[in-house]
Amino acid sequence: MSFVIVLIASVLFGVIPSIQKLVLLDGVSPLVLVLICNSFSAAFTLAVCLAAHKSLAVTKRQLLDLFWIGVSLFLTDWLLNLAYTLMPVGPTTMVHFLYPSLVCAAMAVFFGQRIRLRRAAGIVLSVLGLFLMAGSFSGSSRSGVAVAAMSAAAYAFYMIASEKTSAGRLDPGVRAFFTSAFSAVSALPAVLYRPLCLHEKIVLPATGQSWFWCLLVGAMFCAATVLLHTGIRRIGAGDVSFINMLEPVTSMLVSGALYRDTLSAAALAGCAAIAVSLLFTASSEERDV
Protein backbone atom coordinates (compact mmCIF):
# COMPACT_ATOMS: atom_id res chain seq x y z
CA MET A 1 0.00 0.00 0.00
CA SER A 2 2.85 2.40 0.77
CA PHE A 3 4.18 1.87 -2.75
CA VAL A 4 0.79 2.83 -4.26
CA ILE A 5 0.53 5.95 -2.06
CA VAL A 6 3.92 7.25 -3.20
CA LEU A 7 3.15 6.22 -6.79
CA ILE A 8 0.04 8.44 -6.83
CA ALA A 9 2.06 11.30 -5.34
CA SER A 10 4.70 10.82 -8.05
CA VAL A 11 2.13 11.04 -10.84
CA LEU A 12 0.68 14.24 -9.36
CA PHE A 13 4.15 15.76 -8.97
CA GLY A 14 4.91 14.72 -12.55
CA VAL A 15 1.90 16.58 -13.95
CA ILE A 16 2.43 19.77 -11.91
CA PRO A 17 5.50 21.09 -13.83
CA SER A 18 3.65 21.16 -17.14
CA ILE A 19 0.82 23.16 -15.57
CA GLN A 20 3.32 25.54 -13.97
CA LYS A 21 4.96 25.98 -17.36
CA LEU A 22 1.63 27.27 -18.72
CA VAL A 23 1.65 29.99 -16.05
CA LEU A 24 5.30 30.84 -16.69
CA LEU A 25 4.59 31.16 -20.42
CA ASP A 26 2.01 33.81 -19.51
CA GLY A 27 4.89 35.86 -18.11
CA VAL A 28 4.44 35.16 -14.40
CA SER A 29 7.79 35.21 -12.60
CA PRO A 30 9.07 32.02 -10.90
CA LEU A 31 9.20 33.60 -7.43
CA VAL A 32 5.60 34.77 -7.66
CA LEU A 33 4.53 31.32 -8.87
CA VAL A 34 6.17 29.69 -5.84
CA LEU A 35 4.49 32.16 -3.48
CA ILE A 36 1.00 31.77 -4.95
CA CYS A 37 1.01 28.00 -5.42
CA ASN A 38 2.41 27.27 -1.96
CA SER A 39 -0.06 29.70 -0.40
CA PHE A 40 -2.93 27.85 -2.09
CA SER A 41 -1.42 24.52 -1.02
CA ALA A 42 -1.11 25.68 2.60
CA ALA A 43 -4.74 26.87 2.56
CA PHE A 44 -6.01 23.57 1.16
CA THR A 45 -3.94 21.52 3.60
CA LEU A 46 -5.09 23.65 6.55
CA ALA A 47 -8.71 23.06 5.53
CA VAL A 48 -8.08 19.29 5.40
CA CYS A 49 -6.44 19.32 8.85
CA LEU A 50 -9.27 21.35 10.39
CA ALA A 51 -11.93 19.15 8.78
CA ALA A 52 -10.21 16.06 10.22
CA HIS A 53 -9.87 17.77 13.63
CA LYS A 54 -6.09 17.40 13.60
CA SER A 55 -4.14 19.38 16.17
CA LEU A 56 -1.71 21.93 14.76
CA ALA A 57 0.19 22.17 18.04
CA VAL A 58 3.95 21.70 17.59
CA THR A 59 6.98 22.13 19.84
CA LYS A 60 9.53 24.92 19.34
CA ARG A 61 12.03 22.34 18.04
CA GLN A 62 9.50 20.96 15.57
CA LEU A 63 8.60 24.48 14.43
CA LEU A 64 12.26 25.27 13.75
CA ASP A 65 12.75 22.00 11.85
CA LEU A 66 9.60 22.67 9.85
CA PHE A 67 10.90 26.14 9.00
CA TRP A 68 14.12 24.78 7.48
CA ILE A 69 12.18 22.07 5.64
CA GLY A 70 9.91 24.82 4.27
CA VAL A 71 12.92 26.88 3.18
CA SER A 72 14.36 23.87 1.34
CA LEU A 73 10.99 23.35 -0.35
CA PHE A 74 10.96 27.03 -1.39
CA LEU A 75 14.45 26.72 -2.88
CA THR A 76 13.45 23.53 -4.70
CA ASP A 77 10.31 25.06 -6.20
CA TRP A 78 11.95 28.34 -7.12
CA LEU A 79 15.01 26.75 -8.72
CA LEU A 80 12.83 24.32 -10.68
CA ASN A 81 10.53 27.08 -11.92
CA LEU A 82 13.58 29.13 -12.86
CA ALA A 83 15.04 26.14 -14.72
CA TYR A 84 11.74 25.70 -16.63
CA THR A 85 12.33 29.16 -18.11
CA LEU A 86 15.84 28.16 -19.26
CA MET A 87 15.14 24.76 -20.84
CA PRO A 88 12.22 22.35 -21.52
CA VAL A 89 10.35 20.65 -18.67
CA GLY A 90 11.56 17.15 -19.62
CA PRO A 91 15.32 17.57 -19.28
CA THR A 92 14.87 19.89 -16.28
CA THR A 93 13.03 17.15 -14.42
CA MET A 94 15.67 14.62 -15.45
CA VAL A 95 18.50 16.65 -13.94
CA HIS A 96 16.43 17.34 -10.83
CA PHE A 97 15.99 13.62 -10.34
CA LEU A 98 19.57 13.11 -9.45
CA TYR A 99 18.25 13.77 -5.93
CA PRO A 100 17.33 10.13 -5.08
CA SER A 101 20.98 9.13 -5.48
CA LEU A 102 21.95 12.07 -3.25
CA VAL A 103 19.42 10.94 -0.65
CA CYS A 104 20.63 7.36 -0.71
CA ALA A 105 24.28 8.40 -0.46
CA ALA A 106 23.59 10.81 2.40
CA MET A 107 21.54 8.22 4.29
CA ALA A 108 24.38 5.72 3.98
CA VAL A 109 27.13 8.20 4.96
CA PHE A 110 25.41 10.12 7.75
CA PHE A 111 22.89 7.62 9.11
CA GLY A 112 24.53 4.28 8.36
CA GLN A 113 21.63 3.01 6.27
CA ARG A 114 22.55 -0.24 4.53
CA ILE A 115 22.15 -0.30 0.75
CA ARG A 116 20.46 -3.57 -0.20
CA LEU A 117 21.40 -5.35 -3.43
CA ARG A 118 18.09 -4.59 -5.10
CA ARG A 119 18.36 -0.96 -4.02
CA ALA A 120 21.87 -0.78 -5.49
CA ALA A 121 20.52 -2.19 -8.75
CA GLY A 122 17.74 0.39 -8.64
CA ILE A 123 20.29 3.19 -8.15
CA VAL A 124 22.34 2.06 -11.13
CA LEU A 125 19.30 1.72 -13.38
CA SER A 126 17.80 5.03 -12.27
CA VAL A 127 21.01 6.96 -12.87
CA LEU A 128 21.44 5.22 -16.22
CA GLY A 129 17.86 6.10 -17.14
CA LEU A 130 18.32 9.72 -16.16
CA PHE A 131 21.50 10.07 -18.19
CA LEU A 132 19.85 8.46 -21.21
CA MET A 133 16.87 10.78 -20.96
CA ALA A 134 18.86 13.94 -20.25
CA GLY A 135 21.36 13.14 -23.00
CA SER A 136 18.58 12.72 -25.51
CA PHE A 137 17.89 16.46 -25.56
CA SER A 138 19.89 19.20 -27.23
CA GLY A 139 20.06 22.92 -26.63
CA SER A 140 19.76 22.76 -22.85
CA SER A 141 21.66 25.71 -21.47
CA ARG A 142 24.48 25.18 -18.99
CA SER A 143 22.85 27.58 -16.59
CA GLY A 144 19.59 25.62 -16.76
CA VAL A 145 21.39 22.37 -15.96
CA ALA A 146 23.21 24.01 -13.04
CA VAL A 147 19.97 25.46 -11.62
CA ALA A 148 18.18 22.10 -11.93
CA ALA A 149 21.11 20.36 -10.21
CA MET A 150 20.87 22.83 -7.31
CA SER A 151 17.17 22.02 -7.02
CA ALA A 152 18.13 18.35 -6.68
CA ALA A 153 20.42 19.14 -3.75
CA ALA A 154 17.72 21.25 -2.06
CA TYR A 155 15.11 18.51 -2.47
CA ALA A 156 17.48 15.84 -1.15
CA PHE A 157 17.80 17.90 2.04
CA TYR A 158 13.99 18.27 2.13
CA MET A 159 13.45 14.51 1.90
CA ILE A 160 16.02 13.61 4.55
CA ALA A 161 14.95 16.35 6.96
CA SER A 162 11.32 15.26 6.58
CA GLU A 163 12.28 11.86 7.97
CA LYS A 164 15.19 12.46 10.32
CA THR A 165 14.26 15.65 12.18
CA SER A 166 11.70 16.03 14.96
CA ALA A 167 9.16 17.08 12.32
CA GLY A 168 9.12 13.49 11.07
CA ARG A 169 6.98 12.49 14.05
CA LEU A 170 4.16 14.83 13.09
CA ASP A 171 1.00 13.87 11.23
CA PRO A 172 1.67 14.01 7.45
CA GLY A 173 -1.11 16.54 6.88
CA VAL A 174 0.11 18.84 9.66
CA ARG A 175 3.67 18.59 8.37
CA ALA A 176 2.53 19.36 4.81
CA PHE A 177 0.65 22.47 6.01
CA PHE A 178 3.63 23.92 7.84
CA THR A 179 6.13 23.17 5.07
CA SER A 180 3.91 24.75 2.40
CA ALA A 181 3.24 27.75 4.64
CA PHE A 182 6.94 28.27 5.42
CA SER A 183 7.79 27.85 1.74
CA ALA A 184 5.37 30.66 0.88
CA VAL A 185 6.73 32.79 3.74
CA SER A 186 10.28 32.25 2.45
CA ALA A 187 9.28 33.51 -1.00
CA LEU A 188 7.49 36.61 0.29
CA PRO A 189 10.56 38.75 1.21
CA ALA A 190 12.15 38.15 -2.19
CA VAL A 191 8.92 39.16 -3.93
CA LEU A 192 8.45 42.30 -1.83
CA TYR A 193 12.10 43.39 -1.66
CA ARG A 194 13.55 43.64 -5.17
CA PRO A 195 17.29 43.24 -4.28
CA LEU A 196 16.52 39.77 -2.88
CA CYS A 197 14.93 38.53 -6.10
CA LEU A 198 18.27 38.41 -7.96
CA HIS A 199 17.05 40.88 -10.60
CA GLU A 200 14.06 38.66 -11.42
CA LYS A 201 11.18 40.74 -12.78
CA ILE A 202 8.16 40.39 -10.50
CA VAL A 203 5.05 39.67 -12.60
CA LEU A 204 1.68 38.60 -11.15
CA PRO A 205 -0.89 36.46 -13.03
CA ALA A 206 -2.85 38.75 -15.33
CA THR A 207 -5.66 36.40 -16.43
CA GLY A 208 -8.30 34.30 -14.71
CA GLN A 209 -6.92 31.25 -16.47
CA SER A 210 -3.47 31.73 -14.90
CA TRP A 211 -5.04 32.06 -11.47
CA PHE A 212 -7.03 28.88 -12.10
CA TRP A 213 -3.84 26.99 -13.02
CA CYS A 214 -2.21 28.25 -9.81
CA LEU A 215 -5.24 27.12 -7.80
CA LEU A 216 -5.12 23.70 -9.46
CA VAL A 217 -1.40 23.36 -8.76
CA GLY A 218 -2.03 24.28 -5.12
CA ALA A 219 -4.69 21.57 -4.77
CA MET A 220 -2.55 18.95 -6.50
CA PHE A 221 0.49 19.93 -4.48
CA CYS A 222 -1.56 19.62 -1.28
CA ALA A 223 -2.67 16.07 -2.14
CA ALA A 224 0.76 14.99 -3.41
CA THR A 225 2.61 16.39 -0.40
CA VAL A 226 0.32 14.68 2.13
CA LEU A 227 0.73 11.38 0.28
CA LEU A 228 4.50 11.88 0.05
CA HIS A 229 4.87 12.57 3.77
CA THR A 230 2.69 9.55 4.52
CA GLY A 231 5.05 7.44 2.44
CA ILE A 232 8.14 8.90 4.14
CA ARG A 233 6.63 8.13 7.55
CA ARG A 234 5.91 4.53 6.60
CA ILE A 235 8.91 3.41 4.56
CA GLY A 236 11.52 6.17 4.85
CA ALA A 237 13.03 8.80 2.55
CA GLY A 238 15.30 6.34 0.73
CA ASP A 239 12.50 4.09 -0.53
CA VAL A 240 10.24 7.04 -1.29
CA SER A 241 12.94 8.77 -3.33
CA PHE A 242 13.31 5.87 -5.72
CA ILE A 243 9.61 5.03 -5.98
CA ASN A 244 9.23 8.70 -6.87
CA MET A 245 11.26 8.03 -10.02
CA LEU A 246 7.92 7.71 -11.83
CA GLU A 247 7.65 11.50 -11.59
CA PRO A 248 10.18 12.33 -14.36
CA VAL A 249 8.62 9.73 -16.66
CA THR A 250 5.18 11.27 -16.10
CA SER A 251 6.63 14.76 -16.51
CA MET A 252 8.28 13.87 -19.81
CA LEU A 253 5.15 12.23 -21.23
CA VAL A 254 2.81 15.05 -20.18
CA SER A 255 5.16 17.84 -21.30
CA GLY A 256 5.71 15.97 -24.57
CA ALA A 257 1.97 15.90 -25.18
CA LEU A 258 1.43 19.55 -24.24
CA TYR A 259 4.54 21.12 -25.71
CA ARG A 260 5.30 18.56 -28.44
CA ASP A 261 8.73 17.70 -27.03
CA THR A 262 10.20 14.94 -29.18
CA LEU A 263 10.93 11.64 -27.41
CA SER A 264 14.00 10.00 -28.93
CA ALA A 265 14.94 6.33 -28.69
CA ALA A 266 17.36 7.22 -25.90
CA ALA A 267 14.60 8.97 -23.96
CA LEU A 268 12.32 5.95 -24.29
CA ALA A 269 15.16 3.67 -23.17
CA GLY A 270 15.65 5.94 -20.16
CA CYS A 271 11.95 5.65 -19.30
CA ALA A 272 12.23 1.87 -19.48
CA ALA A 273 15.30 1.85 -17.21
CA ILE A 274 13.51 3.98 -14.62
CA ALA A 275 10.44 1.74 -14.79
CA VAL A 276 12.59 -1.32 -14.06
CA SER A 277 14.28 0.54 -11.18
CA LEU A 278 10.79 1.10 -9.75
CA LEU A 279 10.19 -2.64 -9.81
CA PHE A 280 13.42 -3.24 -7.89
CA THR A 281 12.40 -0.65 -5.31
CA ALA A 282 8.88 -2.02 -4.95
CA SER A 283 10.14 -5.57 -4.46
CA SER A 284 12.58 -4.42 -1.76
CA GLU A 285 10.04 -2.31 0.13
CA GLU A 286 9.85 -3.21 3.79
CA ARG A 287 6.57 -4.23 5.38
CA ASP A 288 4.52 -1.46 6.97
CA VAL A 289 4.47 -1.50 10.75
Outline the structure in words.
The protein is mainly α. It has one domain. The protein is 78% helix and 0% strand. It has helices at 2-25, 30-51, 60-84, 89-96, 99-111, 117-135, 142-164, 172-192, 208-243, 246-259, 265-283. 55% of the residues are buried. The mean pLDDT is 83.
Largest sheet: none
Number of strands: 0
| Rg estimate, integer Å | 18 Å
What is the helix tally?
Answer: 11
Summarize the structure.
This protein has 289 residues and is mostly helical. Helices cover 78% and strands 0% of the residues.
Describe the structure using short key phrases.
289 residues; mainly alpha
Topology:
Elements lengths: L1 H24 L4 H22 L8 H25 L4 H8 L2 H13 L5 H19 L6 H23 L7 H21 L15 H36 L2 H14 L5 H19 L6
